[in-house]
């Protein structure tokens, strides 16, 4: 009797051990790896969701040198009202279980972005499968779907190409997590990089992704505008997410290009009655990449005035950018409100409701402090062009 | 006065003695009775085992008998009064000398075995350091240790066990360094041995170890006299059994199994790096297959995307689930290893080539087994050879399978549960009163000095050494 109980107990233990896991057990080949998502505004206010799904078998054939130029992925599209419903619709088109844990990028069409992305963000935060490191982009003048369809020669997945490019194109890499954090704060408005699809030409057989602008969102998560090129870099510098910066500057005797890294920002705020002032201090140190002026950078006497001049120039430029964003879009994408929150917490409580009205009138002073730490291999430019006196 | 039992006493008459011994050694073809008739008409009887006796010395005895009966010329002899005692000595290799008219016998130690020469220990080779290993002869082995520690406090306590085998064994320790409680405990446990045979030191290990049903070895074994010497100096006891080239060292800790003798001969920085590598490989040898299965079947989000797509691509069209695949390959590998171990060298290499080709190449080509599995199994195999102590590698080899099944059923959660049980077992395990994981758990002062890494000897006192 006792022996039977022991055997029964062991059997129950075994069953308990083996069975509960079985429902969660999926072979790696039973998953459809969802690499990228595109969200667009469809007709009649519907939402269109596209998915870039990996096809492992194709991946193999590329490795073996067989089908060059194969995509190794398919793009599936579904339209409907809610994101959750769309995931199920896409699942219905696949023989394998959708797996969101490896999604690398989310592309939002500009039309949808301008309409507002408030309704789609909830799903990202609620779904436990979502990877917070997923990068998020707005597609400039286009649909997210088109990005997914790009054939890039570097990687079979255009989503991954976009992510990698974001990392190297100086515009920081903005992850879903960063955007969600900005959304949750009162004193900052979200900004995310924008993707341009550069058309094919003779040299470039493939369509190329370009990341050069930043989209600016308001409190209701509607895209209100964009800044491009130098201005977008300056925006991210003041925001504090820029890693490095290339400064090509026109001087009297020619132009000079400086590569700046170790970028830092520091904002101080003062409130005097109704006047809110913000002092932005931007720092960086870097090396000279190109020098077409007659300045000999290896001599302190010549370099220090150059630095001073560059700082002055750059301060004005950044200040102008800030002013433009203040006046044109009126959205605090820099996080100056957050700085006020930190420095004047009680005052902030009073003004945070009307921050959107107050922000355009904040007096922003920018002070750039760039250091030239490395002049490169030579001090003056190529010998013979500008001889030492 | 009671009459003594006459049969067991050596008689004055050589004929009576001869008969008694002939009776005892009935059907013992290896025992030689050699009667000698001397010129003075006295009779002498030599009883010995031919193959265990040094023939030159025997000739010396005979000539000594013939000339003067002066046995003092022979250094090693004893006077024995009992027939049974003399019979036991003859069986151990001594030569018995009976002289007519003398009511006792001489037992001369002329032992000379055909024995293996001292050679390099085959299972514990080292690049630097002494090259000698134990042989099967107890006396040789003791001399090897004595030569390393020439101090009067090095004690060899002689014991005997095995009713039929009559095997002698020695407990070695250093008086003043070993804890008296440990020595007392060792003696107490040795007294509990009830067996009629003792053919190897492992027999003793099974009788005196703490937990019979533990997978982990609680007594260390070594072929190296220098390892024994170092352990004795660290306060351990050693048991050396006649006929066994493996000495037992006790108590054993988990970390001792990770240390090769060479660790103390190479420079410490290199040794520290190698020890970390060994620890890593040990973890790999136990966990690699189960973690792989758990990650790919339960937690694909934890694998980097590019790696996962590669794995996924190589798994396309494979008929077995990953668990079964891994289990099959692991079994095949263990089979290959077991088969290769006992086969003659010439065939052994053939088996491994066929095995490697068939399993590694053909199975992947045919699409039965995915390539990552072959790599995982090979990696695990290599890792399991990195243990300096073969006996400590065995539990890791066995535990790999339950962990694999747990990982395949419950994912990393299952692996964690399995690990938890193993750790619970390890921390409760004791070897002769010493916690198995000492000095890491319970944590000792300066525990790191000679466990996971090794510090320069200047900074490590001998009591902190962990050989």
UniProtKB/TrEMBL annotation, chain A:
Main localization is membrane
Q: Where in the cell is it found?
A: Membrane
* Annotated ranges, domain Spore germination protein N-terminal: 24-196
InterPro entries, A to Z: GerAC_N, Spore_GerAC-like, Spore_GerAC-like_C, Spore_GerAC_C_sf
Q: Please give the GO cellular component terms listed in this UniProt entry.
A: membrane
Domain Spore germination GerAC-like C-terminal residues, every copy: 214-376
Its membrane topology? Lipid-anchor
The answer, when asked if Kinase is one of the entry's keywords, is no
Which Pfam families does this one have?
Answer: Spore_GerAC (PF05504), Spore_GerAC_N (PF25198)
What does the record list as GO biological process? Answer: spore germination
Give yes or no: UniProt keyword Transmembrane.
no
Q: Keyword set for this entry?
A: Germination, Lipoprotein, Membrane, Palmitate, Signal
UniProt similarity note: Belongs to the GerABKC lipoprotein family.
Name of the protein in its database record: Spore germination protein KC
Species, as recorded: Paenibacillus taihuensis
UniProtKB/TrEMBL annotation, chain B:
Q: Where are the transmembrane segments?
A: 276-298, 343-363, 369-391, 403-427
A single Gene Ontology biological process assigned to it is: spore germination
The similarity comment for this entry is: Belongs to the GerABKA family.
Q: Which domain of life is it from?
A: Bacteria
This protein is called Spore germination protein KA
Taxonomy, top ranks, is: Bacteria, Bacillati, Bacillota, Bacilli, Bacillales
Q: Which UniProt keywords apply?
A: Membrane, Transmembrane, Transmembrane helix
Q: Which InterPro entries match?
A: Spore_Ger, UPF0353/GerABKA_families
Position of the signal peptide: none
Q: Which PANTHER family match?
A: LEUCINE ZIPPER PROTEIN 4 (PTHR22550:SF5), SPORE GERMINATION PROTEIN (PTHR22550)
Q: Which organism is it from?
A: Paenibacillus taihuensis
The record's Gene Ontology cellular component field reads: membrane
């Amino acid at each position: 009797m006792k022996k039977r109980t022991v055997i029964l107990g062991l059997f129950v233990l075994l069953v308990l051990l083996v069975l509960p896991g079985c429902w969660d057990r999926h072979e790696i080949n039973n998953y459809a790896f969802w690499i990228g998502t595109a969200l667009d505004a469809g007709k009649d206010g519907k939402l269109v969701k596209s998915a870039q799904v990996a096809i492992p078998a194709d991946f193999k054939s590329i490795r073996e040198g067989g089908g060059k130029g194969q995509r190794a992925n398919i793009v599936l599209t579904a339209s409907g009202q809610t994101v959750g419903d769309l995931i199920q619709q896409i699942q219905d088109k696949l023989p394998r279980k959708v797996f969101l844990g490896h999604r690398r990028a989310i592309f939002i069409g500009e039309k949808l972005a301008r309409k507002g992305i408030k309704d789609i963000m909830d799903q990202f935060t609620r779904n436990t499968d979502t990877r917070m490191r997923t990068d998020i982009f707005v597609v400039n003048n286009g649909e997210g779907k088109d990005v997914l369809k790009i054939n890039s020669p570097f990687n079979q997945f255009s989503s991954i190409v976009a992510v990698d490019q974001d990392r190297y194109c100086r515009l920081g890499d903005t992850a879903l997590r960063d955007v969600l954090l900005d959304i949750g704060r009162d004193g900052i408005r979200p900004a995310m990089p924008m993707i341009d699809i550069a058309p094919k030409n003779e040299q470039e057989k493939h369509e190329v992704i370009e990341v050069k602008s930043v989209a600016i969102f308001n409190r209701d998560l509607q895209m209100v505008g964009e800044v491009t090129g130098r201005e977008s870099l300056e925006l991210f510098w003041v925001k504090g997410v820029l890693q490095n910066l290339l400064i090509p500057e026109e001087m009297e005797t020619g132009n000079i290009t400086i590569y700046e890294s170790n970028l830092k920002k520091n904002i101080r705020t003062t409130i005097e009655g109704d006047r809110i002032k913000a002092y932005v201090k931007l720092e960086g140190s870097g090396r000279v990449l190109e020098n077409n002026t007659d300045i000999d950078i290896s001599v302190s006497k010549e370099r220090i005035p150059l630095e001073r001049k560059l700082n002055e120039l750059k301060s004005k430029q950044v200040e102008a950018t800030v002013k433009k964003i203040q006046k044109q879009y009126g959205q605090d994408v820099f996080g100056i409100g957050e700085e006020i929150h930190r420095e004047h917490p009680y005052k902030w409580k009073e003004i945070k409701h009307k921050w959107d009205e107050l922000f355009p009138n904040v007096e922003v002073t920018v002070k750039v402090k760039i250091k030239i730490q490395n002049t490169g291999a030579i001090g003056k430019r190529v010998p013979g062009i500008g001889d030492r006196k | 006065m009671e009459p003594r039992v006459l049969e067991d006493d050596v008689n004055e008459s050589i004929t009576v003695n001869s008969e008694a011994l002939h009776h005892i050694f009935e059907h013992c073809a290896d025992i030689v009775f050699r009667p000698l008739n001397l010129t003075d008409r006295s009779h002498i009887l030599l009883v010995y085992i031919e193959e265990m006796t040094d023939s030159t010395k025997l000739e010396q005895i005979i000539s000594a008998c013939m000339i003067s009966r002066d046995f003092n010329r022979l250094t090693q002899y004893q006077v024995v009064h009992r027939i049974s005692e003399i019979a036991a000595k003859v069986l151990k290799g001594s030569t018995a000398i009976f002289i007519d008219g003398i009511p006792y016998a001489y037992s001369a130690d002329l032992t000379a075995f055909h024995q293996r020469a001292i050679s390099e220990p085959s299972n514990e080779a080292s690049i630097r350091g002494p090259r000698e290993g134990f042989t099967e002869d107890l006396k040789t082995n003791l001399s090897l240790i004595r030569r390393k520690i020439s101090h009067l406090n090095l004690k060899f306590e002689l014991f005997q066990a095995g009713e039929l085998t009559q095997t002698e064994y020695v407990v070695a320790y250093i008086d003043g360094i070993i804890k008296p409680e440990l020595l007392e405990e060792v003696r107490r446990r040795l007294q509990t041995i009830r067996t009629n045979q003792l053919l190897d030191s492992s027999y003793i290990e099974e009788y005196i170890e703490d937990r019979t049903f533990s997978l982990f070895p609680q007594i260390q074994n070594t072929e190296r006299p220098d390892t024994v010497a170092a352990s004795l100096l660290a306060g351990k006891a050693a048991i050396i059994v006649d006929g066994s080239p493996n000495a037992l060292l006790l108590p054993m800790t988990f970390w001792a199994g990770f240390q090769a003798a060479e660790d103390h001969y190479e420079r410490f920085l290199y040794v520290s790096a190698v020890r970390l590598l060994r620890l890593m490989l040990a973890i790999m040898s136990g966990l690699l297959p189960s973690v792989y299965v758990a990650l790919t079947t339960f937690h694909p989000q934890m694998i980097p995307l590019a790696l996962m797509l590669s794995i996924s691509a190589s798994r396309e069209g494979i008929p077995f689930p990953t668990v079964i695949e891994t289990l099959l390959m692991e079994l095949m590998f263990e089979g290959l290893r077991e088969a290769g171990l006992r086969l003659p060298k010439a065939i052994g290499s053939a088996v491994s080539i066929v095995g490697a080709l068939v399993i590694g190449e053909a199975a992947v080509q045919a699409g039965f087994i995915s390539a990552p599995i072959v790599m995982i199994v090979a990696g695990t195999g290599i890792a399991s050879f990195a243990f300096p102590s073969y006996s400590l590698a065995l539990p890791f080899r066995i535990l790999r399978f339950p962990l694999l099944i747990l990982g395949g059923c419950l994912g990393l959660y299952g692996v964690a549960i399995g690990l938890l049980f193993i750790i619970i077992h390890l921390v409760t395990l004791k070897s002769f009163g010493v916690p198995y994981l000492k000095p890491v758990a319970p944590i000792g002062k300066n525990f790191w000095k000679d466990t996971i890494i090794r510090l320069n000897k200047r900074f490590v006192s001998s009591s902190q050494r962990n050989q």
